[in-house]
User: Which sequence fits this backbone?
C-alpha cells in the first residue's frame, strides 16, 4: 500500500501527479470559498456601512471641510472661501473658547476622579456577597438609566434657593447658616454640576470596575492571607493590578464622555456663571450664530482633544496587554 | 468571642455604608416624588416640608392636560424602539462579518467604526441638519430614527462582535461540513446563539436613544414632535417654572425606566460589562 510509505522519499515523481491535480483543485475550491467569504462579508456589512457612511462618515468629513472654510450663513456674500487654518487659529485667540476649554478640562478631571473614587468603593462593596446586593445593584442602575436632561432638571430643583432639598438638608445639618442660591455663583454652579454628574455616572463606573474585580480568584486572597499579607497589601498587590485593565477602560469611557458634556450643563445652568462647556460654545456658534466654519473648527478641536485623551489611555492599556 | 464581635461590628459599618450609598442614589427621586404629590402651597414652604399633608394628583393631571407629555412619550417610544430594532438588525449582520468572516481590512474597519463613536455629537450636527433638511426629514420620525441608527451602530456592532467572537469555532466548521452557506450559518446557528446577548445590547441601545438630547433638540423643533428629554428640558421656557408639573413629569418618565432596569437588570449589566472588558 503506497499510502503507508512516506511518499516524498520513496516514490517517483509521477506518483504525485494525480495528487497534484487534486491539490490544485482543492486550492481552487478553497480560493473560491475564500472569495465567497469575502463577498458575503461585504454584503452583510453593506447596510450598516451605508447608514454609517451617510449619516456619520459624510457629516464628519463635511465638518472637517467646513472647518477650513469661512462659512457664516449670516454673511453669505463672502462666498465661503477656503481660509486654511484661520478658524483654528481663532480658537487660540478667542478668549471665550480658551475659558470654555479650561472649564471643560477642570470639569472632566474633577468629575472623573470623584467618579473613580466613589465607583471603586461602590464596586468593592458590591463585590462582597451580602443580603440585599440585588437591590443595591438595581438602585445603582437607576441614575444611569434616566435621561441626563431629566436628572439635570431634578437636581436644578434640588438646588433651588428657596424650596430646594439641598439647602434644607445642609441647613438642618448645620452646615450652612442660611439658604444659598447655589446656581447663581460660579463656584456653586460648578459644585452643583459636579455633584449631579458624579451622582449619575459613578454607578456606571462601579459596574465596569466590578466586572474587573469579579475576575479575581478568591483563592488568591486566601493564599495571600495565609502568607500574612494585610488588607492594604492584598488591595495593592492583588486587587489593583488585576482590576487595572477594567479601571482604565472605565476611565477612558468616562473621560471622553465628560469632555463632550452638553446636556447636563445646557439644562441646568445654560452655561451661566462661567459654566459653558466647549461643546455648548460650538453648538452656539453653529446653530445660533450660524458661523459654520468656526463652529466646525471648535467641534473638531473637541474631537482632537478627546482623541488625544483616548491615545494616552490606549498607551497605558497597550503596556498592560503586553505585560499579560 | 472577641473575633465574633469584631466581625459583627465590621458588618454593621459595612451595612451603614451600603444604606447611605443607596439612600444618596435614591434621595433625588424620593424628593421629586414627594414634591409631585404635595399640594401647591406646600412646595414653596420654608423650611421645606418633606411629608405632604395631603396627597395631590393635580400635577399628574397637569402633565397630561397642560403639556403634550403623552405625545412626547409616544414620540420617544416610536423613535427609540424603531431605531433599536433596526440598528440591532443591521448591526448583527455587520458584527458577524467583522468578527467571524475573514477578509482584508477587517481590523481597520472595526477600528474605524469604533473611531466614529469618538466624534462628539456636535461634530456631525450641522451637516446632518442640512442633510435632513434637504431630504425634508426634519420634524419627522424617519429623520430622527435614521440619525439614531447611525449613532447607535458603532456601539451595537462593537458589543455584538465581542459576543460573536466568544463563540466556539466548531459551530461554523460543523455548519460548513453540513453544507451551510455563510448566510445560513449566520441566521440558523450563530444568531440564535447570541440572542440573549442581542437582547442586552438592544436594551442599552434603547436607553441611549430614549435619553438622547442634542439631536432631538436640533432636528425636532416642532412642539408636537419633541421627545421626552427635550420636552422636559423646555418645560420652564414655555410656562413659568411649574415645579410641581416638572416633578410629576420627571416621575412619569422615570418610572418606566426604573421598571426596565428592575426587570432586565442582569441583561443590562451583561451588556455594559462586555463592552468594558474588551476595551
Assistant:
Amino acid at each position: 500500500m503506497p499510502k503507508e510509505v512516506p511518499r516524498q522519499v520513496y516514490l517517483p515523481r509521477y506518483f504525485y501527479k494525480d495528487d497534484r491535480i487534486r491539490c490544485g483543485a482543492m486550492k481552487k475550491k478553497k480560493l473560491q470559498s475564500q472569495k465567497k467569504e469575502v463577498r458575503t462579508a461585504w454584503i452583510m456589512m453593506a447596510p450598516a456601512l451605508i447608514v454609517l457612511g451617510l449619516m456619520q462618515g459624510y457629516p464628519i468629513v463635511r465638518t472637517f471641510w467646513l472647518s477650513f472654510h469661512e462659512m457664516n450663513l449670516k454673511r453669505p456674500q463672502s462666498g465661503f472661501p477656503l481660509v486654511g487654518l484661520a478658524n483654528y487659529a481663532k480658537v487660540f485667540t478667542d478668549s471665550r473658547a480658551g475659558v470654555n476649554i479650561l472649564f471643560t478640562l477642570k470639569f472632566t478631571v474633577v468629575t472623573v476622579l470623584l467618579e473613580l473614587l466613589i465607583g471603586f468603593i461602590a464596586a468593592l462593596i458590591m463585590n462582597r456577597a451580602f443580603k440585599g446586593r440585588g437591590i443595591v445593584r438595581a438602585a445603582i442602575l437607576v441614575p444611569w438609566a434616566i435621561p441626563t436632561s431629566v436628572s439635570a432638571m431634578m437636581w436644578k430643583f434640588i438646588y433651588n434657593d428657596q424650596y430646594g432639598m439641598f439647602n434644607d438638608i445642609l441647613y438642618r445639618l448645620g452646615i450652612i447658616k442660611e439658604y444659598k442660591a447655589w446656581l447663581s455663583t460660579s463656584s456653586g454652579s460648578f459644585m452643583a454640576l459636579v455633584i449631579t454628574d458624579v451622582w449619575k455616572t459613578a454607578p456606571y463606573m462601579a459596574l465596569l470596575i466590578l466586572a474587573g474585580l469579579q475576575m479575581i480568584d478568591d483563592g488568591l486572597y486566601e493564599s495571600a492571607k495565609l502568607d500574612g499579607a494585610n488588607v492594604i497589601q492584598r488591595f495593592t498587590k492583588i486587587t489593583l493590578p488585576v482590576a487595572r485593565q477594567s479601571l482604565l477602560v472605565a476611565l477612558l469611557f468616562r473621560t471622553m464622555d465628560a469632555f463632550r458634556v452638553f446636556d447636563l450643563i445646557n439644562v441646568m445652568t445654560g452655561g451661566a456663571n462661567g459654566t459653558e462647556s466647549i461643546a455648548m460654545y460650538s453648538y452656539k456658534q453653529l446653530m445660533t450664530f450660524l458661523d459654520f466654519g468656526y463652529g466646525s473648527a471648535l467641534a473638531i478641536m473637541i474631537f482632537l482633544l478627546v482623541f488625544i485623551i483616548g491615545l494616552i489611555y490606549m498607551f497605558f492599556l497597550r503596556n498592560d496587554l503586553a505585560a499579560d | 468571642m472577641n473575633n465574633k464581635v469584631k466581625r459583627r461590628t465590621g458588618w454593621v459599618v459595612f451595612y451603614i455604608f451600603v444604606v447611605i450609598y443607596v439612600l444618596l442614589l435614591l434621595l433625588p427621586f424620593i424628593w421629586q416624588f414627594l414634591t409631585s404629590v404635595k399640594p401647591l402651597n406646600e412646595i414653596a414652604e420654608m423650611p421645606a416640608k418633606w411629608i405632604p399633608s395631603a396627597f395631590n394628583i393635580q400635577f399628574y393631571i397637569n402633565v397630561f392636560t397642560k403639556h403634550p407629555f403623552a405625545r412626547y412619550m409616544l414620540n420617544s417610544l416610536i423613535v427609540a424602539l424603531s431605531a433599536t430594532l433596526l440598528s440591532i438588525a443591521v448591526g448583527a449582520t455587520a458584527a458577524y462579518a467583522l468578527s467571524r468572516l475573514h477578509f482584508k481590512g477587517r481590523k481597520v474597519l472595526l477600528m474605524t467604526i469604533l473611531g466614529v463613536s469618538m466624534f462628539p455629537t456636535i461634530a456631525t450636527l450641522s451637516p446632518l441638519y442640512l442633510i435632513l433638511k434637504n431630504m425634508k426629514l426634519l420634524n419627522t420620525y424617519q429623520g430622527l430614527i435614521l440619525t439614531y441608527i447611525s449613532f447607535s451602530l458603532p456601539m451595537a456592532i462593537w458589543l455584538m462582535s465581542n459576543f460573536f467572537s466568544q463563540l466556539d469555532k466548531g459551530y461554523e466548521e460543523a455548519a460548513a461540513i453540513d453544507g451551510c452557506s455563510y448566510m445560513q450559518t449566520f441566521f440558523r446557528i450563530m444568531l440564535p446563539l447570541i440572542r440573549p446577548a442581542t437582547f442586552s445590547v438592544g436594551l442599552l441601545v434603547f436607553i441611549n436613544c430614549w435619553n438622547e438630547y442634542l439631536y432631538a433638540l436640533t432636528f425636532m423643533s416642532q412642539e408636537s414632535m419633541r421627545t421626552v428629554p427635550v420636552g422636559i428640558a423646555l418645560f420652564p421656557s414655555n410656562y413659568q417654572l411649574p415645579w410641581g408639573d416638572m416633578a410629576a413629569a420627571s416621575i412619569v418618565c422615570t418610572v418606566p425606566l426604573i421598571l426596565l432596569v428592575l426587570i432586565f437588570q442582569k441583561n443590562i449589566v451583561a451588556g455594559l460589562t462586555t463592552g468594558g472588558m474588551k476595551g
